Amino acid sequence: MEISVHLLEPSKRHAKPQDEKNLVFGRVFTDHMFLVDFKEGQGWQDGRIVPYGPLELDPAAMVLHYGQGIFEGLKAYRRANGEIYLFRPEQNCERLNRSALRMCMPEIDPALQLRAIEKLIKVDRDWVPHSVGSSLYIRPTMIATEPHIGVRPSAEYLYYVITGPVAAYYAEGFNPVKIYVDEEYVRTVRGGLGEAKTMANYASSLYAAEVAKKKGFTQVLWLDGVERRYVDEVGTSNIFFRIGDELVTPPLNGSILPGITRDSVMQLANHWGIKVTERRISMDEVIETTQSGELKEIFASGTAAVISPVGEICYRDKSYRVADGTVGEWALKLYDEILGIQYGQREDIFGWTRLISEE
Ligand SMILES: *Cc1c(COP(=O)(O)O)cnc(C)c1O
């Protein structure tokens, strides 16, 4: 497919943010976006890069009623020499297709997704921030657009990509967060949509996140939706526990989103000779090992923050400090390594980074 390009007139281009360090996440968008339409029987058509702006959507568009909407999140990183790289973008394209399948939405050729993302970044390359830690956030999205009231999969879809510069997540240093274990609300259940990156999972997470925020916590720790005993995820990130000298993370059992950062953490830890185990971990075990001192670190993993150390957990109205409450050794080592690979300061032994060519 040809991707056509309609550029915004130079006089209408937006000023780029002056202060890269104080960008609020998700508020500033670049001058262009990519769109491509799907119609049953015709497939994907009319891939185009156009000026960023509102979409025209019928009020009966099925995404607005029945929630067929999925997305991805990845970043473009500018290195000291000016080159721009993506981090494991093929994984995001494949995961979007797995989410699509689960939501009865059409797959889209991963090669087309990647070409669209790269072409869009080239058009808006001056928007990619320069400081280490800051990056261009990329949000591929697919929605059901057929105007139809009545429950069944839509016959028409829009895939689009928008991007925007974001600051380093830890502008004020790499600080541990406080998390709240929710026993009342669940994000998803096995057999539900948990393993798909679908809008509905975010909708179902909002209420508990607000409750946690009001109580003074940064994130919710989600338990399994069946027994509410085993740890699933934290906020919109995967979770890791260092127990003794083993790294433990819950297995991908259907209710957990298969994070690309999660996979990178596991591969790196393995490479360093750390024993990595995917197994269920109950809250009883978390509390017991926290109290015995065997639990040395808890951290979350995801594209936005890379690694997010957990300093304190609140369970059944009691607060527990994780080890001494400061950033753990493995969390810091993983954070430095992954960020280092993304910005070209560490050797990319796994071939995770992908250069966006100059032309
Ligand atoms: C996106 C997401 C993650 C993290 O995935 P990455 O690919 O590492 O960014 C984890 N959990 C949930 C629920 C998510 O939506």
Secondary structure layout:
Layout: E1 4-5, E2 32-39, E3 43-51, H1 63-66, E4 69-71, E5 74-78, E6 84-87, H2 89-102, H3 110-123, E7 135-144, E8 156-166, E9 177-182, H4 199-214, E10 219-223, E11 231-234, E12 238-243, E13 246-249, H5 260-271, E14 275-278, H6 283-292, E15 295-302, E16 306-315, E17 318-321, H7 329-342, E18 353-356
Parallel strand pairs: 1-3, 9-10, 9-16, 13-14
Antiparallel strand pairs: 2-3, 2-8, 4-7, 5-6, 5-7, 6-18, 7-8, 10-11, 12-13, 12-15, 15-16, 16-17
Helix pairs in contact: 2-3
Bound molecules: pyridoxal-5'-phosphate.
What would your notes on this structure say?
The protein is an alpha+beta fold and 359 residues long. It folds into 2 domains: 163 residues, D-amino Acid Aminotransferase, Chain A, domain 1 (2-Layer Sandwich), CATH 3.30.470; 166 residues, Alpha-Beta Barrel (D-amino Acid Aminotransferase, Chain A, domain 2). The chain is built from 7 helices and 18 strands. The strands form 2 sheets. Strands 1, 2, 3, 4, 5, 6, 7, 8 and 18 form a 9-stranded mixed sheet that branches. Strands 9, 10, 11, 12, 13, 14, 15, 16 and 17 form a 9-stranded mixed sheet that branches. A hairpin with a 2-residue loop joins strand 16 and strand 17. Helix 2 crosses helix 3. The protein is globular. The two termini are 19 Å apart. The mean pLDDT is 96. Bound molecules: pyridoxal-5'-phosphate. The site of pyridoxal-5'-phosphate (PLP) has 14 residues, from helix 5 and strand 15.
